[in-house]
Prior knowledge:
The protein is an all-alpha fold. The chain is built from eleven helices and no strands. The chain is 81% helix and 0% strand. Keywords: Membrane, Transmembrane, Transmembrane helix. This is Sporulation protein YpjB.
Amino acid sequence: MPKNIKMLLLLLVVGFLLSMPISYxxxxxxxxxxxxxxxxxxxxxxxxxxxTEKGDYDTAKLKIERLAxxxxxxxxxxxxxxxxxxAVTQSILSAKKAxxxxxxxENRLLWHATQVRVAVDALSHQRSPxxxxxxxxxxxxxxxxxxxxxxxxxxxxxxxxxxxYQLYLALRPAMTIQxxxxxxxxxxxxxxxxxxxxxxQKLDWQIMRSSIRELSSTMQEAFVGExxxxxxxxxxxxxxxxxxxxxxxTLVTVSLAYVAWIKYSAMKQRRI
Length: 272
């Protein structure tokens, strides 16, 4: 292979390898301070949840204490309703209290950790929040709830409702960040309707089934949200710009290498 072709390929490879760390650090340097701080809090919340899942409650306690001390002093890069800000703050403070109480069960600690995790995540991932990934779990619970109503199984119905309601409460602070106030009020009213029906000694099963279906439909709208383009969801990730630049660099490198190889092959044929 001619020396100039070898040199060209070498430069292409070196340029590609250098483009990755450079593009990454450029992206990080251009990130506003508020977003950097929020990304750090998001990382701490993730570490808290993972520690809780592993049963490392001492580490999880340190993480939630850090969140409780830092979050009130942060300037958020997005505007929030007072209700949403209070919901996130309260979820963090409630979790801190739960971790300091030796009587709190493991399941309850996991519930608090999940609530805080998805709430903090929703602050920095506006287009693809973590709470929406719970759609399948929520949908399955709604199916079980409706099945209990169809079978007129009062005991199972009440148990399924409580389980479903606890999942909703875990997701609610995060949901308030992305959903409009009217949408949240609509969901709350549907839950209150079902809770009110469950207080009756003799249930009206037709009304109960209708209320459950309406709640399911309302929550489906909340989970699905507005249509999002693949590019929009991709770019929501803090490191998406870096990955996009790497992808483009790879494409350019491969293309140039292919052109160089074609040129080399043509030169070789002419010599023959």
